[in-house]
């Protein structure tokens, strides 16, 4: 008798215990994000309090004089990520459309695997490749010829100003573009596949060419979610660290041309944090981290809201 | 007649535009495939020649001395292994909660949303967080802090895959278990988890692929260590941090070692990715 009553209650206790265990694991995830935010706010507060709003406007970054202004890295982050999106988006659309509409099914498996592998390559490998392969090539075949052709006092001359070593904002954006390309392309492809067959076939039935079907029917159909895909890529590009650190040249100057060396928030933190000498320096870097957190959080939240969950 | 020619011209133009468009999409795809091949090629060209037994038997050398990457490889393995154990336990439990208990609740929606954000959050911020959490209070860089940072990076990956996989299991399976008189937790552990095993392994492999190349979270947690060390309380070398240090150095032999390390990491990551996805594909079909 006692065994029978003990049986179900033990199972019930086990159920409750297991559910609590799963629940606490889920809460650990929430606590991680909350802790991340709290740690950055607490850590960055001394610098923010010390410099006030000047922290975001000033481009001075001088560890010796203990004067820190984040404008250089912030603008560097936005410019590299923005440029990267400009380069990656047309390519991503092309890849997604090719895979959905034109690619022979034999080939599709391998092409999408290649795109997935591109996403799997670690950031540091991109960085090495950028530094040792892309940068020298870029310096020799793009920067030097432009150097001879373009009048240095013209608009283009100012735009292309910089030491011809290939380590600059533009090449950093190129690397970022390759890195975020697979993320955007994969989401866009899922979105294109989600266009109802009858919509697509109705357009074909009217005699539209594939180009017209894609550009006038399918892309407008997914427009809203596609913006989400772009923001997802943007979120990645904004916070990308190692690849950028290798190739951007790491100068804290406010970027004045496309081929100038610069820095991003993430590259500044990666470069200086372990060696930061003073408390104010550490705090300034944590405040930078907070800025990065806010920017990427906004981009990622925007992306999720626009895409919806299933396709991301 | 003129009308017909006009029609023909228009048709020809539309066809031409279409061919141009198809060509452009092919070119875009070619750019991605070529970029992948170029990167893989430079890894092989620069790294393959340097692979020898010494890489695995000798520790990282001072400049211009012979040496290998043993301390970095073992350090990476140790921190990834510990990080993965934490990530798999938390990730599978959290994913199970989302799929089996949370269901449509508001809280589950929030957790799911934050997990997705965490999934794409910059990993360098995880490094800063763990620095504030473990390194600063304990007054020192340590391998343990590095492992925790890696766990934070991998957990969202495991959670996400676990939830997706568990949702694929049919409710009949759950009902059959319940009908036999088993409690909910027993059904989940003995039936649902077992049926989802290949998918759960995929989640773990994808998480591993993600962290084995991660550098940013280790820079100010485990820091790096030129000597072989297994102690969790001490700084520890890892392949990514060693590559970072060597690649940016002025010494040719350090750079050569960096290429070897990059090749090793790329092989590991790509293999984990391919095996993980193959397993996932297999389990979807069955």
UniProtKB/TrEMBL annotation, chain A:
GO terms for biological process: phosphate ion transport. Pfam families: BPD_transp_1 (PF00528). Residues 74-303 form the ABC transmembrane type-1 domain. The chain crosses the membrane at residues 20-45, 78-103, 124-149, 169-188, 226-248, 284-307. It is found in: Cell inner membrane; Cell membrane. One of its GO terms (cellular component) is plasma membrane. It is a multi-pass membrane protein. InterPro entries: MetI-like (IPR000515), MetI-like_sf (IPR035906), Phosphate_PstC (IPR011864), Phosphate_Transport_Permease (IPR051124). It comes from the Bacteria. Keywords: Cell inner membrane, Cell membrane, Membrane, Phosphate transport, Transmembrane, Transmembrane helix, Transport. GO terms for molecular function: phosphate transmembrane transporter activity. Part of the binding-protein-dependent transport system for phosphate; probably responsible for the translocation of the substrate across the membrane. Belongs to the binding-protein-dependent transport system permease family. CysTW subfamily. This is Phosphate transport system permease protein. It comes from Novosphingobium sediminicola.
Automatic annotation (TrEMBL), chain B:
Residues 73-276 form the ABC transmembrane type-1 domain. One of its GO terms (molecular function) is phosphate transmembrane transporter activity. One of its GO terms (cellular component) is plasma membrane. The chain crosses the membrane at residues 21-44, 72-98, 110-131, 137-158, 199-220, 256-280. Pfam families: BPD_transp_1. Keywords: Cell membrane, Membrane, Phosphate transport, Transmembrane, Transmembrane helix, Transport. SUPFAM superfamilies: MetI-like (SSF161098). The keyword Cell membrane applies. Gene3D superfamilies: MetI-like (1.10.3720.10). It is a multi-pass membrane protein. InterPro entries: MetI-like, MetI-like_sf, Phosphate_PstA, Phosphate_transprt_permease. GO terms for biological process: phosphate ion transmembrane transport. It is found in: Cell inner membrane; Cell membrane. Belongs to the binding-protein-dependent transport system permease family. CysTW subfamily. This is Phosphate transport system permease protein PstA. It comes from Novosphingobium sediminicola.
